[in-house]
Amino acid sequence: MTSSNAKAFIQRGELKLLSGNANLNLANSVAKSLGIELGASEIEKFSDGEIKIKINESIRGKDVYIMQPTSYPTNDNLMELLIMIDACRRASAGYINAIIPYYGYARQDRKTRGREPITAKLVANLITQAGADRIITMDLHAGQIQGYFDIPVDHFSAIKLLSSYFIDMAYNKGDQFVVVSPDLGGVRRARAFSDYLKLPIAIIEKRRPEPNVSEVMSVIGDFKGKHAILVDDMVDTAGTITNAANYLIDNGAKDVYIAATHGVFSGKAIERLSDSSVKEVIITDTIQLPKEKQLDKIKQLEVGPLLAEAIHRINTYESISGLFDDGE
């Protein structure tokens, strides 16, 4: 038996949860659900922008979980994650598990023209080489990114959580509600969402003349006179999703809700959502929402309990398959 295989059969040590600066609220939520304290660490920056990390308690032989979505500022948060993984490895942690609720660079997952990088793969290599033993993430923009890692990846979906928000108002009311995929690539996600709610789906056919710009060509399915729920993995600049929402309203939908796992909200996203015909935007807290980006129509659902249960099961070698669902 090789040393790497042998490691899988060694009893996991005491659970320790650490966090970078990207989403301390979520880290504290997970710690609370686990009934533990968040590990003591310091993260500082030198005057030139270099990141300094110090872990202020022993993690030797421990089963360490590092919470750090790589959201904006993406490069700073990614470097924090890499440095913290390296610090844990050099401190002789037993296992190092990187919890990346939002995986930055996921949209650069393939080459579409010559001389382009595949940055999602590069980031996977960096995290692995830094010393991570396992990745825990949610709703990757491209599911195949799991295969970019040569270590275990537990890929969870927020589809069940997001759909539960609509249970009381929409369950099995196909004459009043419809789930809408904003593009052909999101059909599987929309189908899983609609299956939970027992609703029909519609699909928007669009084209992208340039990045972050889209034009609706047509809609496959019946949405006129219905409440539409647009389902996506993320809302970034909100240009595509608000264009789709406005198109649905202009062509006969009663109103439009948005349900998405990750609220990236870059550029003019908040302004666009505020000015749009969207009634509510339902997201999760995989990305911390700063005060200046909070709107009355934006509702955040907690993924902390799901991640905490996953951590507990991994730490105790219990099956986690029951925590997965049919989302992408």
Task: Describe the protein in words.
This protein is α/β, with parallel strands linked by helices and 328 residues long. It has two domains: 3-157 and 304-323, Rossmann fold (3-Layer(aba) Sandwich); 160-301, 3-Layer(aba) Sandwich (Rossmann fold). It has helices at residues 3-7, 24-34, 74-90, 119-130, 159-164, 167-170, 187-197, 239-250, 269-275, 304-315, and strands at residues 15-19, 41-45, 51-55, 63-67, 95-100, 134-138, 153-156, 177-181, 201-210, 213-220, 227-235, 255-263, 278-284, 298-301. The protein is globular, with a radius of gyration of 21 Å. It starts with a helix and ends in a 13-residue tail after the last helix.
Entry keywords:
disordered N terminus, globular, about 325 residues, alpha/beta, Rossmann fold, 7-stranded mixed sheet, 2 domains, 14 strands, about 30% helix, 5-stranded parallel sheet
Helix/strand-derived category reads: alpha/beta
Indicate the overall shape: globular
Largest sheet: 7 strands, mixed
Helix content: 25-40%
List strands and helices in order, with pairings.
Layout lengths: L2 H5 L7 E5 L4 H11 L6 E5 L5 E5 L7 E5 L6 H17 L4 E6 L18 H12 L3 E5 L14 E4 L2 H6 L2 H4 L6 E5 L5 H11 L3 E10 L2 E8 L6 E9 L3 H12 L4 E9 L5 H7 L2 E7 L13 E4 L2 H12 L13
Parallel strand pairs: 1-4, 4-5, 5-6, 6-7, 8-9, 8-11, 11-12, 12-13, 13-14
Antiparallel strand pairs: 2-3, 9-10
Helix pairs in contact: 2-10
